[in-house]
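INTERNAL AUDIT FORM
Audit reference: QA-55
Scope: verify that the stored structure record matches its stored sequence.
Auditor: D.O.
Record contents follow.
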Amino acid sequence: MPKPAMWSGLILSLCPVIYARKRLTDSISREFLAVFRKNGDNLMFGIRNTLRVILYFSLCLFLSSCASTEIKNINAHDSLEKYEDEARLWKRAEEFEEILQASGFLYPDEQLIRYVNDVLEKVMGSAVLPTDNYRLKAYVINDPLFNAFCLPNGSIYIHTSIIANLENEAQLATILGHEATHFLHRHALKEFRSLINKSALMSSLQVTFGAASGVVGVSADLAGLLTQFCVVGSFYGYSRDIEREADKRAFELMTQAGYDPHEAKRVMENMYEAIKDEKVKVPYLYHTHPKTKERIKNYEAFIEEYLKTNPAKNEGLRNTEKYNAMTKNLLLDNTELTMKRDSVKVARRQIERYCKIYPEDFKCLYLSGKLYMQEGNQEKAESEFQKSLALNPEFPESYKEIGLLYYKKKEKEKSDAAFKKYLQLKPEAKDAEYIRGYLHE
């Protein structure tokens, strides 16, 4: 059974192609939504229905027509009406959001969501939207893969991994400014029309349909589906020119909001370091993005140009303490998700940052110990678990983990004592019978 984080990445990789034209696509959409609703909050409803998603988005693409890519920005005029194909894009985006909102993938921290939207509002301070129908709103997705995207209707989604990798509010403002620009400049519509106008599109569709039809009716493994989704998602990522434009406008928005200009470059530097440590290279929507090193150089140029005309603004807001306070729980949660993906180096970077901010936090030491266990360093793991228990002797998970460590070291007396304490503190634990099995050996 595929893990939720994996499915989140797979489905979200299709975001740039949420659109349709004919009644046929409407019926496909209704069929998919009906299947999802029937299966409640479980998105993992089988290979056949997963393939419907692939075919649905591919059919939507096939049934659209050519149009001009010369499109005015949303915030450039007092009043704007959506184009016909743009209205369809919005409709599909809303349908996609209905699925996403019911999927259980959204990170359930209302205070954090309010904070992210407050930062978004600051960033948007100089960008006036024509009507209330054009709005931006941010959400957070519980996923350890590095990603962020904006739907055609202005809904911004940021993965927990991105937030965990950032150091302060100024860096968050840069990400939000980048994604907001995709909405303000109608990049989804521009890219949609551009793709439609390319003759190579039909051949890609044939590949999609051909590969999908080869799997129907058989128990294809997850790796095959992963490949199929990644091909579709990466093909429809935004072009390099569009991403450069979004980076440039993001820098303008964050500096206009008073943030430190140097932090924009730091976002890319952090991302470069984090991506290097990723065990699995799956940058869904970033396949056609400029290389990270290139983006760092772009931001260096933006900063240099900015300081020539604004020499007094070499520094600005960072709001590091507030950012750390608002993202404290997320940083721990995302570290655990990252550990489950066995991305030990990425998880180590995150937990070390957390421990630097909160050196006396028992959960930090507990997770650090688990990481050392994954790395095969039992000595350091034992030390971290003991420190965790010294800070909070009532935390059951530390007893379980140190018990497992002693069990592996064949120190039966110590492991039994730790397991008994774990069961005493958490008698209704889901793994209680499993732990009792160790005691009866």
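Auditor finding: record pair retrieved intact. The mean pLDDT is 78.
Action required: none
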